[in-house]
Fold M23 family metallopeptidase.
Amino acid sequence: MTTTATVRAPERRRDRVRRGVAGLMPLWFWGIAAWLAAGFVIDPPRVVSVAVSLLLAGMAFVRPPRVAHDPVEVASPVRGRWTALNSPADQVPSHGVRAYGQTYAVDVLLPSPPGTPPVVPWTGGFARPETFGSFGLPVHAVADGTVVRVVDGRRDHRARTSWPALAYLMTVESLRDLGGPGAVVGNHVVVDHGDGVFSLVAHLRRGSARVTPGQRVAAGDVLGEVGNSGNTSEPHLHVQLMDRPQPLRAAGIPFRWRDARILDDVQDTSRATTVRTEVTPGLPAAGQVFEA
């Protein structure tokens, strides 16, 4: 792992408080649900109802402070040829939100066959995860470190790749924040790489974890397999770097994959109708295909 970031200054009390509030995000969402339910029973004055609702909503959307950090150079978590999605090469935050430490996260999955149109069908869309080529492929550690967290028991659900399936996905996913990080990122492994840098690989296959908390790993060691657990539409790998081991309290850290070669003459337009022609070494954009 290579980083040129300066030594991190002691965190201000205000920022520690923000991390603490953000770390309780599921509690605030449960509070909103409980308060709305209580309103039908106790019928509080309107001003009280609005004030409490706004307070809980405000707390629920507190996020950890942003951190200034140069990109950290690590190894790719996958081998072979892959396509990127939701990449920080296109936008930051890459997934539209900074929650769960995913400001600079990227999703990867196997490229679609050439000529596959970017069409979402109106029928089907609930295929078993085993029918996808990426399902079960190995996921590797991006750098030397110590495993600090392993979640391995969440089920791999069916795909959500049609309009009705996506509507179902959005309905279900709107409730996942109530279940905390595990409900969102599914089965996952967090590794401490030192210098305040942690990696998280998410949506792993149920029962595929090859490591346990406290275990030392080297870059390239297999951590688990690509799965379809948590908030996913189809089997893929979500990977990110962050500055804390707890996703709710963490701020994202930018990265570069030193062993990822972006193929500037190959594009996966089924994943991004407009694919960037610019190449950022080690950081594939959505629809760009890379080999590692």
User: Anything to note?
Assistant: The chain is about 20% helix and 20% strand.
